[in-house]
């Protein structure tokens, strides 16, 4: 069975600073990987996804993520954080063969002015 | 239309009440999902409907009863709930997957916040 770990429960960065949110997965083969964002009181919105091919994927809102098979990681990055990026970020993994999406525990991002 | 619409946004009910949560999408998606999300936790899958048939029930108590009347609508009927069922209930839908992916991208509604007194 697949699993996802987001080691950082909370992260605080200053506006304009760079951001990296960590995600590690456990799965026997190459999984399908996703990052979702959830603003307070809202549903989840997909930022980006990795299925195959180029291991650096670009998403919406200036986010990108890099799949590193050797480290079983799919970290999310943004070069310059905006105050509106404050939200909860969920990494998710889906194995093939009909498995459902498994979410990590989430990382709450706070942005200082 | 790329929205998943959930009603009501907020619901307060007693333990003896019967109520329903509703979800609607007009994107032509044939898979629809109910998730439960407690505060500061990730969403937990409850049910999956594929082509209007229940395909996954994650051992959810029978006081939660899903229904998929047609390809655009998904209901969650609630009866005799407990206070610990208070949570944000999220509906999602997904198009046919890419490659071997079963779900592809999930499109979420904003959720129905349920409080059980």
Explain how this protein is built.
The complex is a heterodimer of chains A (113) and B (117). Chain A is mainly beta and 113 residues long. Chain A is 0% helix and 51% strand. Chain A contains no helices and 12 strands. Chain A has strands at 3-5, 10-14, 19-21, 24-26, 32-38, 44-50, 56-58, 64-68, 73-78, 87-94, 102-103, 107-112. In chain A, strands 2, 5, 6, 10, 11 and 12 form a 6-stranded mixed sheet that branches. In chain A, strands 3-9-8-7 form a 4-stranded antiparallel sheet, with no helix packed on it. Chain A is globular and about 40 Å long. The termini of chain A are far apart. The model of chain A has no long low-confidence stretch (mean pLDDT 92). In chain B, the strands form 2 sheets. In chain B, strands 2, 4, 5, 6, 9, 10 and 11 form a 7-stranded mixed sheet that branches. In chain B, strands 1-3-8-7 form a 4-stranded antiparallel sheet, with no helix packed on it. Chain B contains no helices and 11 strands. The N and C termini of chain B lie far apart (36 Å). Chain B has strands at residues 4-7, 10-13, 18-25, 31-37, 44-50, 53-57, 64-70, 73-79, 87-94, 107-108, 112-116. The radius of gyration of chain B is 14 Å and the shape is globular. With 117 residues, chain B is mostly beta strands. Classes of the chains: A mainly beta (113), B mainly beta (117).
Summarize the helices and strands and which ones pair or pack.
The complex is a heterodimer of chains A (113) and B (117).
Chain A (H helix, E strand, L loop, with lengths): L2 E3 L4 E5 L4 E3 L2 E3 L5 E7 L5 E7 L5 E3 L5 E5 L4 E6 L8 E8 L7 E2 L3 E6 L1
Parallel strand pairs in A: 2-12
Antiparallel strand pairs in A: 1-4, 3-9, 5-6, 5-10, 7-8, 8-9, 10-11, 10-12
Chain B lengths: L3 E4 L2 E4 L4 E8 L5 E7 L6 E7 L2 E5 L6 E7 L2 E7 L7 E8 L12 E2 L3 E5 L1
């Amino acid at each position: 069975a697949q699993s996802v770990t987001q080691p950082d429960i909370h992260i605080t960065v200053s506006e304009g600073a760079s951001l990296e949110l960590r995600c590690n997965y456990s799965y026997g083969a190459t999984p399908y990987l996703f990052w979702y964002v959830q603003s307070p009181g809202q549903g989840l919105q997909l930022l980006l996804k990795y299925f195959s091919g180029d291991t650096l994927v670009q998403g919406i809102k200036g986010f990108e993520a890099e799949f590193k098979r050797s480290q079983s990681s799919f970290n999310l990055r943004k070069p310059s954080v905006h105050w509106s990026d404050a939200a909860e970020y969920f990494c998710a993994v889906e194995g093939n063969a009909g498995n459902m999406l498994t979410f990590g525990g989430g990382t709450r991002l706070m942005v200082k002015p | 239309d790329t929205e998943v619409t959930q009603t009501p946004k907020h619901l307060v009910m007693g333990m003896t009440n019967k109520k329903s949560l509703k979800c609607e999408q007009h994107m032509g998606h044939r898979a629809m999902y109910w998730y439960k999300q407690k505060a500061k936790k990730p969403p937990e899958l409850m049910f999956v409907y594929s082509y209007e048939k229940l395909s996954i029930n994650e051992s959810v108590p029978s006081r939660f009863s899903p229904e998929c009347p047609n390809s655009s609508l998904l209901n969650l009927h609630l009866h005799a709930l407990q206070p610990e069922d208070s949570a944000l209930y999220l509906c999602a839908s997904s198009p046919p997957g890419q490659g071997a992916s079963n779900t592809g991208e999930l499109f979420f509604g904003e959720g129905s916040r349920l409080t059980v007194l």
